[in-house]
Design goal:
By secondary structure, the chain is of the alpha+beta class. It has one domain. Helices cover about 30% and strands about 20% of the residues. The strands form two sheets. It has a four-stranded antiparallel beta sheet with strand order 1-2-3-4, covered by helices on one side. It has a three-stranded antiparallel beta sheet with strand order 5-6-7, with helices on one face.
């Protein structure tokens, strides 16, 4: 019997080969699906980290500069100009412009005669470019500079960048263009960025921080 098996020259039938091939195709597709899901998850995770880190850097700089917002012309006589934000209207909900005493002369804004002089202007602005979805920073009257890419801009009222203003108690809101600008003691900044989802739908990541104004008041 052993000799007969050794001399046996018959192979697999066509049906057996087809079944084996189908089984291997199913197994390989299953392995590929697991591999592809792992790669996609890794890519999305990396994109989320990169988007978050980029947004955090821009947010920290914005937070630091807003905290230092300085009165436009506190020593002016007979009427001091203690405003920190310009203009003060509905646009302040999605963009911000404020004075910052960069040269230590005790004044920062247009009423001090420093703006629009490009060499002396100490106004800083943050807004989102609707064409590119980029957070832009403008300082000293010079052209805007990009700070954070992939901001989730939707429309003029939902730009991916928003500001809320509060009194010193941190809870009573001061509505832009409605409440008194002089009552503002803190600013809440919210920055929303897009995360590339690769083969799946893109997602968003939102960073929020509260900023107490150091120079509000005396």
């Amino acid at each position: 019997m052993r000799g007969r098996f050794l001399r046996e020259e018959r192979g697999f039938t066509l049906m057996e080969m087809m079944i084996t091939t189908i089984i291997w195709i199913v197994v390989l597709f299953a392995l590929y699906s697991v591999f592809d899901m792992s790669i996609t998850a890794l890519r999305v995770g990396n994109n989320k980290v990169e988007a978050g880190e980029g947004a955090r850097v821009g947010l920290e700089r914005m937070e630091r500069e807003i905290r230092q917002a300085y009165a436009f012309n506190r020593d002016a006589t007979p009427t001091p100009d203690t405003r920190l934000f310009e203009p003060w209207n509905a646009t302040n909900a999605t963009q911000i412009t404020f004075g910052n005493d960069l040269d230590g002369d005790g004044k920062s804004g247009p009423t001090a005669g420093e703006c629009p002089n490009i060499n002396a202007c100490e106004l800083i602005s943050y807004s989102v470019d609707p064409a590119t979805g980029t957070l832009m920073r403008t300082s000293g009257g010079f052209p805007p500079q990009p700070m954070v890419e992939d901001v989730d801009y939707v429309d003029a009222t939902n730009t991916g960048l928003s500001f809320q203003y509060f009194q010193l108690d941190g809870t009573t809101e001061v509505v832009p263009g409605v409440g008194d600008e002089a009552d503002i003691g803190a600013v809440r900044i919210e920055l929303r960025v897009r995360v590339d989802g690769g083969n799946v739908q893109d997602s968003t990541q939102t960073l929020t921080t509260d900023v107490a104004l150091r120079n509000r008041g005396g």
